[in-house]
Amino acid sequence: MLGQLLHILAAAIVSWILFVTVDVFFRLPEAGGVSGASAIARDIEAGGGALSGGTMMGNIVCSPDASAGTLLAACGVYVAGIPGGLVAAALVFIGNRICHDPGYAGTTGAVLATFVVYGFTQVGFAATDFIAGMVIAILTIQGLSHAHASRLLARLWRVRQ
Amino acid sequence: MIALYLVAAIAVFAAIRATVEKNTGRKLPYVNVMNFAVAGAIVLLLDHPLALVAAAAYFVGSTLEANAIASTYAGGERRG
Questions:
Q1: Cβ–Cβ of A139/B49 closer than 8 Å?
Q2: Which positions, given as ranges, span the membrane (chain A) (predicted)?
């Protein structure tokens, strides 16, 4: 029980690092992909947050990004191994196009996450640890404190620049 | 099993926060967390290859809805 909780916690940290790195690399904090993402960013800034971090959070809401890619890749690896993860990447690609997103953060994140999750399943982790871990990781960004999360993302974005 | 309970608890938590939050722009990230949790729960409940398609369909559909709500809230798409 405690061992599994620790696995989920470790998976959450790995997922967090993976999706934030891919999203920042693909310049999600730079500009809103759709007008709705910019509106969310403005509201987060009005609530005491940082604009660039809010923009990334708005982009995560409006189109499947690397976080969604990581979640669905973990789901894919759980139900069908590496082929399942790659199918998830294809579904994320279709999702990006449906959501009017010109980027490839989601697809790249899903492909990377497929191999990361599969690698961890070879050393004692379960793919379910990564499903729960990714939900915890997105909770820390989108669901606890928008002001603090957006300021942290803005700081990472300044490092990237 | 513990992963499923954890994910379900986060879904409920996010749904409550989305209900309590009054500002639409700040409400949508909470809904986003709930969508992540529900998509994860679908696969954790149904260990079948098609569960992945169901989760992806749910997730992409709900993301598109959030996108539409946010863009309407922003005053629609600006062209040119």
A1: no
A2: 6-26, 71-95, 115-141
Residue B78, domain member (yes or no): no
ipTM for the whole complex:
0.92
Within a domain: residue B65? yes
pLDDT per position as a tens digit, B43-77: 999 989 999 999 999 999 999 999 999 988 888 65
Substitution target from B19, B67, B78 for chain A, most A beta carbons within 10 A = B67
Q: Give the 3-state secondary structure of B4-71.
A: HHHHHHHHHHHHHHHHHCCCHHHHHHHHHHHHHHHHHHHHHHCCCHHHHHHHHHHHHHHHHHHHHHHH
| pLDDT band with cut points at 50, 70 and 90 for residue A160 | confident
Q: Does B67 touch chain A (CB under 8 A)?
A: yes
**How many domains does one find in chain B?**
1
Q: How far is A157 from chain B (nearest CA, A)?
A: 19
